[in-house]
Amino acid sequence: MRIVIAEDDPLLRQGLALLLRAESLDVVAVTGNPDDFLAAVDEHRPDVAIVDVRMPPTHTSEGITAAVEARRRQPDLAVLVLSAYVEQAFATDLLANGSAKLGYLLKERVGRVEEFLTALHRVAGGGTAIDPDVVSQLLTRTRPDTRLERLSPRERDVLSLMAEGLGNTAIAERMVVTEGAVHKHIRSIFAKLDLAPTDRTDRRVTAVLHYLDDARRRS
């Protein structure tokens, strides 16, 4: 696994590199600003990019902007974004084009090494790893959501595979059904979760967020 790190805090930047190299992972570049990060992505063609949300020069949205641009340049790039706290607008921007090969973690998770490494490998493998606190704030509910109880076991299986970042073809292959059957299940999932086509957010991403939040509540 080839990794590029973009983090403006020198201590965290070097700490991440040491941690990953100790796990025999190939850190090919360590950068401290968006321009160097994008140059490293172009040069090294990494499998995964670990990116801080707030980077120079303004320390606002540069990291998210760079992550979105890196995915535009290299669509198969897995991206794990780190943030000091939940930034709902930035998380929504990152997830706007789907959830495959994407992660959004709070920096406090890095200190929980096993959790961090699990998330990294999940994202690199094509899945989704979103911090439970991020999920909660993206859904912004005060009462437990019971809509997932409306799903059939087969529909929950489909949604689980969607949460892993699988597309419809891969889901069909995994479940040994036709793509048409997968489309039918997904339409039913959207209907049972009250996700209308006019929703401002991507329905597939929102459905995955509901699934992740339910899994968090059950754990």
Structure description:
This protein is an alpha/beta fold and 219 residues long. It has helices spanning 10-22, 34-44, 62-73, 88-95, 113-124, 132-139, 153-163, 168-175, 179-192, 203-218; strands spanning 2-6, 26-31, 48-52, 78-83, 102-106, 128-130. It folds into two domains: 2-139, 3-Layer(aba) Sandwich (Rossmann fold), CATH 3.40.50.2300; 147-218, Winged helix-like DNA-binding domain superfamily/Winged helix DNA-binding domain (Arc Repressor Mutant, subunit A, Orthogonal Bundle). Strands 2-1-3-4-5-6 form a six-stranded parallel sheet, with helices on both faces. β1 (2-6), α1 (10-22) and β2 form a beta-alpha-beta unit. The protein is globular. The two termini are 29 Å apart. The relative contact order is 0.10.
How many domains is the backbone divided into?
2
Strand-pairing-aware structural class: alpha/beta
The low-confidence parts are none
Tally the helices.
10
SSE topology:
Layout: E1 2-6, H1 10-22, E2 26-31, H2 34-44, E3 48-52, H3 62-73, E4 78-83, H4 88-95, E5 102-106, H5 113-124, E6 128-130, H6 132-139, H7 153-163, H8 168-175, H9 179-192, H10 203-218
Parallel strand pairs: 1-2, 1-3, 3-4, 4-5, 5-6
Helix pairs in contact: 2-3, 6-10, 7-9, 7-10, 8-9
Features:
6 strands, 10 helices, Rossmann fold
Write a concise synopsis of the structure shown.
With 219 residues, the protein is an alpha/beta fold. It has helices at 10-22, 34-44, 62-73, 88-95, 113-124, 132-139, 153-163, 168-175, 179-192, 203-218; strands at 2-6, 26-31, 48-52, 78-83, 102-106, 128-130.
